C-alpha cells in the first residue's frame, strides 16, 4: 500500500509541469551531442598525444570539441529557458555541418597516414583508426536531424535509432580493426565484435518494419548487454595498461589500449534508448501480454496513453 502511494506520488511529479522539459526528446538529443563533443576533447587529447600532435591539423578536432559544447550549451539555454528558437536553429546548423566536415576530413587524414601509401588491408589495419573521426560526423547529423525532422514523430525516432545503429556498426569496424592489429591475442577481444554486430542487427528491424512494443523489450535486453560489454572492455583496457612497464600513468594510457574506446558501447546505448523510447507511442502492443517499455511509457505518460486508447 505504501509502495503504491509512493509510486503514485512519483508519477505525479514525473508527469507534472515542472518536469515538462524532461519529456522533450529534442532536448535529450541536444544534451547527448553536447556532452559527447566535450568527452571527445579528452579522447582526442589522449589519442593525438601518441605523436605529440606532430601536425598542426591534429589540433582541429581538439579545439572544435572544446568550443562547440560551450556554444551548444548556451544555445540550449536560449531555446529552453528564453524560448529563442531561431538562434538555436541557425547556430545548430552551423555546428552540425562543421562537425560533419571535421569527421569526414579526419577519415581522409587518418587513411592518408598509411593506407593511401600502401593500399593494402594490412596498411588499413595498422593505420590510424579511420572510422574514429566519424563520431564527429554522426554527432553533426544528429544536430541537423534534430532541426529538420519534427520531434515526437515516428520519422524522428527512427532517425535517432538509425544513427545509434550507425554508431554500433562503427564500433564493429573499430573493434575488428583494433583487435586485429594484435591478432586477437585474447579470446575476449571477440566479444565487442560479436556484440556490436548483434546490436546492429536488432536495431535495424524497427527502422525498416513496423514491430510491436514487445520487440523493443528484446532490443532493451540487447542494449543492456552492450552496456555491460562496454564496462567490461573499459576494465580490460585499464588492467592491460596498468600492468605495462613504466611509471607514468598518462604515458600508459597514451601508448596502451585506448581506455575510452569501450565506453562507446554504453554511450550508444543511451542514444538508442532515446530513439526506442520516442518510437514507443507509434507502435502497437502485442496481442498477448504487455511490454515492459510500454508499461513504463504508460506510467510516465498517462495522459498520452489515455488519448491513444480513446482514438483506437
Q: Could you write a compact summary of the structure shown?
A:
This protein is mainly alpha-helical and 312 residues long.
3D structure, described in words:
This protein has 312 residues and is an all-alpha fold. It has 2 domains: 20-148; 155-302, no CATH class. It has helices at 2-15, 25-48, 60-80, 85-112, 115-118, 121-126, 134-148, 154-180, 191-208, 213-242, 249-255, 264-279, 292-300, 302-311. The two termini are 32 Å apart. 32% of the residues are buried.
Topology:
Layout: H1 2-15, H2 25-48, H3 60-80, H4 85-112, H5 115-118, H6 121-126, H7 134-148, H8 154-180, H9 191-208, H10 213-242, H11 249-255, H12 264-279, H13 292-300, H14 302-311
Describe this protein with a few key phrases.
mainly alpha, 312 residues
Give start-end ranges of low-pLDDT stretches: 119-126, 308-312
Q: How much helical structure, as a percent, in the residues? A: over 70%
SS-derived structural category: mainly alpha
Number of H/I helices: 14
C-alpha end-to-end distance: 32 Å
Amino acid at each position: 500500500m505504501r509502495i503504491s502511494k509512493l509510486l503514485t506520488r512519483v508519477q505525479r511529479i514525473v508527469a507534472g509541469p515542472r518536469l515538462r522539459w524532461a519529456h522533450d526528446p529534442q532536448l535529450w538529443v541536444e544534451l547527448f551531442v553536447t556532452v559527447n563533443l566535450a568527452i571527445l576533447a579528452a579522447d582526442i587529447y589522449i589519442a593525438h598525444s601518441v605523436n605529440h600532435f606532430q601536425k598542426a591539423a591534429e589540433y582541429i578536432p581538439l579545439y572544435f570539441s572544446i568550443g562547440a559544447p560551450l556554444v551548444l550549451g548556451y544555445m540550449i539555454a536560449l531555446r529552453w529557458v528564453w524560448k529563442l528558437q531561431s538562434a538555436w536553429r541557425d547556430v545548430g546548423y552551423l555546428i552540425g555541418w562543421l562537425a560533419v566536415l571535421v569527421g569526414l576530413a579526419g577519415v581522409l587524414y587518418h587513411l592518408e597516414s598509411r593506407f593511401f601509401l600502401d593500399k593494402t588491408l594490412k596498411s588499413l589495419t595498422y593505420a590510424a583508426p579511420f572510422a574514429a573521426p566519424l563520431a564527429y560526423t554522426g554527432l553533426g547529423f544528429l544536430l541537423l536531424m534534430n532541426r529538420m525532422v519534427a520531434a515526437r514523430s515516428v520519422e524522428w525516432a527512427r532517425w535517432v535509432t538509425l544513427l545509434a545503429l550507425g554508431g554500433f556498426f562503427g564500433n564493429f569496424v573499430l573493434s575488428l580493426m583494433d583487435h586485429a592489429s594484435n591478432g586477437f591475442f585474447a579470446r575476449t577481444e571477440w566479444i565487442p565484435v560479436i556484440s556490436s554486430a548483434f546490436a546492429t542487427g536488432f536495431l535495424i528491424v524497427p527502422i525498416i518494419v513496423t514491430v510491436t512494443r514487445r520487440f523493443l523489450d528484446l532490443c532493451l535486453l540487447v542494449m543492456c548487454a552492450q552496456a555491460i560489454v562496454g564496462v567490461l572492455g573499459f576494465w580490460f583496457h585499464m588492467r592491460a595498461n596498468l600492468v605495462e612497464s613504466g611509471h607514468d600513468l598518462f604515458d600508459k594510457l597514451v601508448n596502451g589500449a585506448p581506455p575510452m574506446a569501450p565506453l562507446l558501447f554504453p554511450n550508444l546505448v543511451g542514444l538508442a534508448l532515446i530513439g526506442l523510447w520516442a518510437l514507443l507511442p507509434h507502435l502497437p502492443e502485442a496481442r498477448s501480454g504487455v511490454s515492459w517499455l510500454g508499461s513504463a511509457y504508460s506510467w510516465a505518460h498517462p495522459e498520452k496513453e489515455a488519448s491513444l486508447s480513446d482514438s483506437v
